[in-house]
Write a structure and sequence with these properties.
By secondary structure, the protein is α/β, with parallel strands linked by helices. The protein is 35% helix and 17% strand. The radius of gyration is 16 Å and the shape is globular.
Amino acid sequence: MIDTHCHLDQLDSPETVANEAESRRVMIVAVTNLPSHYAQALQHLEGFKYVRPALGLHPLMVAKHAAELTPFLRLARTADYIGEIGLDFSPKGVATKDIQVAQLDQMLNALTDRPRFITVHSRQAVLPLLELLSAKNIRPVVFHWFTGTASELDRVVSSGHYLSGNPAMIGTKAGERVINETPTDRLLTETDAPYAR
C-alpha cells in the first residue's frame, strides 16, 4: 500500500502514524509545505524505510515565505521525494500568481538533473503547470487531488503524468469523475491527511 500525499507533520500524532506505517510496511510520502519543515522531517524520519519525507514549498506559501526558496534549491540536490509544489490560481492564490510561476520555474530548474518522485498541486492552474513541466521536460509527476476539467485530465494523462485519489473524492460527482476517467495504470492512492480524513 502507498499513500502518495500525506501531510504527516500536520497530524495530531505524527510519530504514532509513522511508526504504525513502518510496522505495517505502508509507504507514505510525507509531503511538506516549507523546506524548513522538510529539514525537520529528515531528522525525525531518519532510519525509516517506508515513510519518506518530501521537500515542498506549497504554492499558497511562496509569497509569504519567499526566503524559503533558497533552502529549497539547496535541499533539492539531495531530495528524492518532492512535494508539495505547484500552482494555485483559485481565489485563495490568484493574487500571488506571478510569484508562484516565477518561483516554481526556479524550483523545477533545480529538479531537471535526475528523476524524482514529485507530487504537485494544480488547483485552477492545470494548463500553466503542464506547460512549465513540459518546458523543463519533467515527467512523470503525480497531480494530487485533481479538480480540473475532463479535457485537462486528458492532457495530464496524455502528457505521461499520474493522478492520485483520496477518500474525500469518493462520494462527490467531480471526484468520482476524475477517478472513473483516469486510466487505472495512472491512478495512485493518497490520503492528503489531515485535509481529507
